Amino acid sequence: MGHASTRSVTLTGLSAHLIDIDADTHAEAGAAPGDAGLHVVGLPELSVWPARARIRAAICNGAPPWPDTQVTVTVTPALPVYNAAADLALAVAALAAAGLIPPERIAGRVFLGELALDGQICPIRGVLPMVAAAVRAGISTVVVPAACAREAAQVPGAVVIPATRLADVVDDLCHGTLRNPHHDHGSEVALSSPFAVDLADVPGNPAARRALEVCAAGGHHLFLSGDGPATMLAERLPGILPPLTGETAREVAEIYSLAGHPGRAPGVTPPLSAPHHTSTAAAVFGSVAGNRPGAVSLAHCGVLHLADAPEFASPVLDGLCRPLDSGQVHLTGLGRSVRYPARFTLVLDTRPCPCPERREECACTPEVKRRYRARLALLLSRVAVRAPVEQRDTSARAGEPSATVAARVLAARIRAAHRLADTPWRTNAEIPAPDLRTRFPVTPEAAELLRSAANAGLVTADGLSRLLRVAWTLTDLRGADRPQADDAAGALDLWKRADTDAAR
Ligand SMILES: [Zn+2]
Q1: Is the residue at 194 inside a domain?
Q2: What is the tens place of the pLDDT at every residue in 3-59?
Q3: Same domain assignment for residues 108 and 242
């Protein structure tokens, strides 16, 4: 009667939980070598068979011959969804209970890795949050697929042991020589190159550049309209946003890890996520089946850019309202429910009409153009700043570099953070309408100007709140204490800009 136990980690959304793997052998013999002498308890019915098949095949392909015993592996707590990342832990526990690995060598360690039928240890998604959970629980030694070792080593305090084949892991455990611990703790978050694009490269378009700066400073969403360099501008927004803090950089890196793109994690630069307009709702919002976050979560703490926004499918455009309002995605299905963070600055752009390129040949009627833009109506009701982008800009002198603009944005953000210190909000864009009026009053002149704009039918009540938020951002940008009439007029100007029938 042998017994062995070890640990692995499972993920729901981004929350990782340690699981206990216990294996026991039974006295009754009779199974042929490599035969079905493996029972698994604590996994959902549909997962048991494939998991058992993978583990048995992997053991037969290279590890010591399967002993002539029955092994029962118990996973606790019982999992509603099995993550194949626990394959390796199940295999070593079974082998240790059967006496093929000294049980004390697997205790107190976490094993992560999906097994291929030939015994290879395959890379898995979400290594970063899983290893972080292990270290938080006091287990620093983690065995991970070799392809994920670099990613795992970003977790401070983790002792990462890369593994390529099950047979090698068994060999190392037997000889007490878990080899090649991966030492790469130097680069905690510096994974990718910093942004190589600069605002100085964007020709002309002073109004759109100013709008970009205001959005960066206040966290406002942006609508760009025209056939100019909207994508160039959107790509440069992360570069003028304040860098991510240690906490947010870790959260963003964990999302990229779970999405299976650890190498694309943006380090301390806020991320840019720009799904193509043919993207499915699952690609944009994520999928509960594979526990895979979508484009909106890859934009978390950064920028989501929808180029040619009216071309996106209606479920995508309408579905964006929920993450915009709540800062997260909530997915349900298959009896499960997951949440992914998704708090981002939205940049929408659109051409004047549905014609693909040549405007000269355009025969679109005003009604066609109106209907095209009207697809964005729901989203535009959440956008506070609009600007035109022009292709042939006559005032095309070189603009300011990103570093200069970023410095102004940072100063404005610091003023806002100071004012919002005792509130749950970090940017002007997040302040709810009632609090905006009661806690952050503007000067009487500014209030009067906004009131007359509302009376003239230029803005709705909702629109008025958005103007107030932008007025505060303009105040922060000029380093003042309270919005004056000029700030209110500036906000109104940023609202009226762009030839937007659509925005009405
Ligand atoms: Zn047209």
Answers
A1: no
A2: 999 999 999 889 999 999 999 987 655 544 445 578 888 888 888 888 888 888 888
A3: no
